[in-house]
Amino acid sequence: MDPTTTIRHNLEDYEKVRGTFSWDSIASELSGLPGMNIAYEAVDRHAMGTLKDTLALRCIRKDRSFQDFTYAELKTQTSKFANVLQNLGIKKEARIFSFAGRIPELYITALGTLKHRAVFCPLFSVFGPEPIYQRLSRGDASILVTSSALFEKKVSKLLDRLPSLHYVILTDITEHISDKILSFSKLMEKASEEYQIQETKAEDAALLHFTSGTTGMPKGVLHVHQAVLTHYITGKYVLDFHEGDIFWCTADPGWVTGTSYGIISPLVNGVTCIVDEEEFDALRWYSILEEHQVSIWYTAPTAIRRLMRMEINPREEYHLEHLRLILSVGEPLHAEGVLWGKEKFGMPILDNWWQTETGGIMIANYSSMKVKPGSMGKPLPGIETGIAEIRDQVLTLITEPNIQGHLVLKKGFPSLFRAYLHEEERFNKCFIGDWYISGDLAKKDADGYFWFIGRADDIIKTSGHMVGPFEVESTLMRHPAVAEAAVIGKPEPAIGELVKAFVVLKPGNEAGEELMLDITGFARKELGPAVAPKEIEFVESIPKTRSGKILRRLLKARELGLPEGDLSTLETN
Ligand code: ATP
Ligand code: MG
Hints:
Strand order of the largest sheet: 2-1-11-10-12-13-14-15-16
Bound molecules: adenosine-5'-triphosphate, magnesium ion
GO molecular function: acetate-CoA ligase activity; ATP binding
Shape: globular
Protein name: acetate--CoA ligase
Pfam families: AMP-binding (PF00501), AMP-binding_C (PF13193)
Enzyme class: ligase
EC number: 6.2.1.1
Distance between the termini: 38 Å
CATH topology of one domain: GMP Synthetase, Chain A, domain 3
């Protein structure tokens, strides 16, 4: 199928859409319900309309069997959970945490919590006890929904230190254990199927997410119910949801992508959402795409890099006729990755940029526009972005193209975060006047496409140049022997910082002097001697966060023998 023939929201009229765009008109496309409740928009609205028998959620278990929920069934289940909260005396804006694998109960908890106007906060199921304690206590958790195995192993010993945690609800026991440790199924059994959603204000708190911790201690980021407008339009324009689409977002709901796009955006757009309980496994992933006839697939560069390393030709070995869009987020996707999509799947992989704080996609390569491999794309309608110079708290927008600066976004879009939990000063520091400062550096080309340079914290200052690690890493990855690369700045008095690269080789290459010289020569030719790495170290793997982001701060701390900092999100297997 030619993907471009099926694009519903043709953004070739991009400028026109931008010109006439208003958040009010987007709001009017959703319900006429007073206020705005995410779960109502995502589930009940469809369950009461023509989509009631459409498949909303398909949860694939580890053994590949699966459980399906239509929109009507999801409405019933989530209403029941909202009643569970009601029956337990849980008040509006209380924090309900989940700490579970990708199982149906997690999705029911998320949406039921939002219906009850409590705040949903997901934790990633591989966290150890201390990161869990930190987040539950910082987040003032009232309820934790988890499994008995996770509870026994990681939570039970923390209870004494968590006096405000009223209940722990276990997803896999049939009877309550005590007044505090309750059974999910027992509570659900007793709860009514009818739940009247109370008026939810657009500004009512809805979601609390902890950031990935790539640059330091994870921040607790708070979003409100009207963020659903961003989930809706980004689903419509970027993910290009059509009626009948089957969408798979591979992110875990422990991270914002897994909630915004693994739950809310597909449902609010009325499509079918696939959930897989298992972790990354290339063969399993390809067979899920085939068996469940996935049409839109949203994944991350870390997974794409792993797939690229394998000798598999997906289009030849699997029936993937239904697949019409592949998208990536989380880190920059190097041009090679974008083009690999074209070669292997017949469509470029569409990179898009956003962060926990923005709650949804802000800048994207759209399928109906010219895709520029290696760029983040253009801002969404309704989103104003700029490149700025910031000096002494004065922000000046840079209007000339191709100049590097801070990537900033104009306040006022619905899904912009409303607080960093317990860190008001840090929150305030993110804003100058009307602009939110993302912490990333980028440049904008003459066609209005944005190009990622690096995180402000990761930028390397060498011999008077500002070097973004991404550019160097992307170049290194074009060398045939390089599978992965991470680049840091290492203090060096004469030049400020020296560019150092950690390189993982593709199988079959021998780490040695000869190859090092070859890679260095290649980088010098491509990047010029000032920017090319002066030091290359071959390593087995590169430390990453659980959400797949390169932890350059950890490589740097290790290189310099400094304390390693918060490692709660470090991927350890
Ligand atoms: P922390 O804020 O705790 O350091 P984090 O910034 O990695 O962690 P997230 O909010 O999950 O936490 O990640 C958002 C960041 O990821 C962005 O600010 C950006 O640096 C990077 N990022 C995400 N998508 C892209 C992309 N398509 N291109 C480039 N960078 C991206
Ligand atoms: Mg961040």
